[in-house]
Amino acid sequence: MHEAEDASRDRARLVVTSRGFRERRAWQALKSALPESWLEGSGFRGVLLVEAAGDPLALAARVARECGEAVGHVTPILAEVETDVGAIREAAAEVARTHVGAGQSFCFRMHRRGWSLPQREAAQLEREIGGAVFAALERRHGARPAVDLEDPDVTVVAEVLGRRTAIGVVRKS
What we know:
Layout (H helix, E strand, L loop, with lengths): L10 E8 L4 H11 L4 E4 L5 E7 L2 H11 L4 E6 L2 E4 L2 H15 L5 E9 L5 H23 L4 E2 L6 E8 L2 E8 L2
Parallel strand pairs: 6-7, 6-8
Antiparallel strand pairs: 1-3, 1-4, 2-3, 5-9, 8-9
Helix pairs in contact: 3-4
């Protein structure tokens, strides 16, 4: 990921996974759909980083729509932090405050690559960060937010890529 974290740029950045680890197919689909984009490998198998002009949420929706056969999931990068529990928790809560509306259901998911934790600790960490998101939304909207782990309106996502973590949201289509 780029070190520059200037949110005022009019460039959108995405984390895109390839379907079935067919990275070359995903790369070709992305270049065809977004010829002016900049693509790079993330250093993790099947995970690509995309940068192009425009709004990150709109770009993610476009990639999902136009490259759906070649890509797994698409996460718009709305914040980027060092891979540290406190930093991820704070960034996820801030992104949720901005992108989860009152009355919308949510869940938090973390995709870890290059950050090894025992499964039990990873699940507890996901619950802890999800709890921080819940508390932030409760303060923001003045009511208990709806949690839906199966089919939420908005999923707050942390994409851990080694020492850096991208935070984004995926909306129900």
